[in-house]
Amino acid sequence: MSETTNERTRCLIIGSGPAGYTAAIYASRANLNPVLYEGIQPGGQLTTTTEVENFPGYPEGVTGPQLMEDLKKQAERFGADIRMGIATAADLGQAPYRVTIDGEKVIEAETLIIATGATAKYLGLPDEQKYAGMGVSACATCDGFFYRRKNVAVVGGGDTACEEAIYLAGLAKQVYLIVRKPFLRASKVMQERVFQTPNIQVLFEHNTVGLFGENGVEGAHLVKRRGEPDEERVDIAIDGFFLAIGHKPNSDIFKPWLETDEVGYILTLDGTPRTKVPGVFAAGDVADPHYRQAITAAGSGCKAAIEAERYLAAAGK
Ligand code: NDP
Known about the structure:
It is a single chain. The protein is α/β, with parallel strands linked by helices. It has seven helices and 19 strands. A hairpin with a 7-residue loop joins strand 15 and strand 16 (232-237). Helix 1 packs parallel to helix 2, helix 1 packs parallel to helix 7 (294-314) and helix 5 (159-169) runs parallel beside helix 6 (188-195).
């Protein structure tokens, strides 16, 4: 497709999770007239979660979609220009930086805030593709409804896996939590909730090697203590197979221009959202392998907008 440059902005924000929206709130209040593209999943990962209990300011908790709606409204109130569209290419060779949206429209940006977040990982089994949309999911809160009074499995041993298992236990008949290690990595409070939920069975030291079923998932082939002398093959009957094994940062189009770690998280300088390219900032999960919380993402989005404002002021723009 041919590219046409038809717009220039002082501040371009890519991504619409807590980092992107918070950057938009601060950038609009600083009169940077930011343009924000929402990306593949408007509202980001929190739109696929249920109750958020740890975002300060909500003593009774808030649903993920509601929190994101509130952040979006707050950004729009100050004039942020929020648009649908996905960044498909980037040229950060020199300012103004050029970002292509949906493969056709090019935006020239004096400052760029990358807040593209991270995407759920899959095990890499061919069966995950074979049964995509037919029993395999990476979002319990999106798809759990379809498994009421059925049997499901969740893969993973972190907080996400525990949260998804607990959520699904409220809908499904039986939930298997498939954990590759002999322990959970999740926080103690989440572990306790899992152990206290009668219809969750934790299968420690189990790995999934395949799925089976005629017209959708009917079960999973597992291996217990893979590689050990007492290795054992186990099949479980399930209708739904949920992945909760972590995320991959959405940094691919920026990698030629920025430094990333081996997983792909964008490296920033000295605890700030600054990247090695002046005027380009990274905020939220795309640059955070450690905390990955809504509140830390929002905090880094705030910092990125302040950095953008100072960068423009110093450049006399
Ligand atoms: P984590 O990286 O914390 O956990 C990933 C889990 O998946 C681990 O148990 C890991 O196993 C397992 N895993 C990874 N790859 C494979 C594989 N190929 N096969 C089988 N198992 C695999 O990711 P989460 O998404 O759970 O959490 C991310 C961050 O978000 C964490 O900091 C977490 O605390 C936070 N979070 C907080 C919540 C809250 O406070 N309410 C809710 C959700 C997340 P292993 O342990 O063996 O490496």
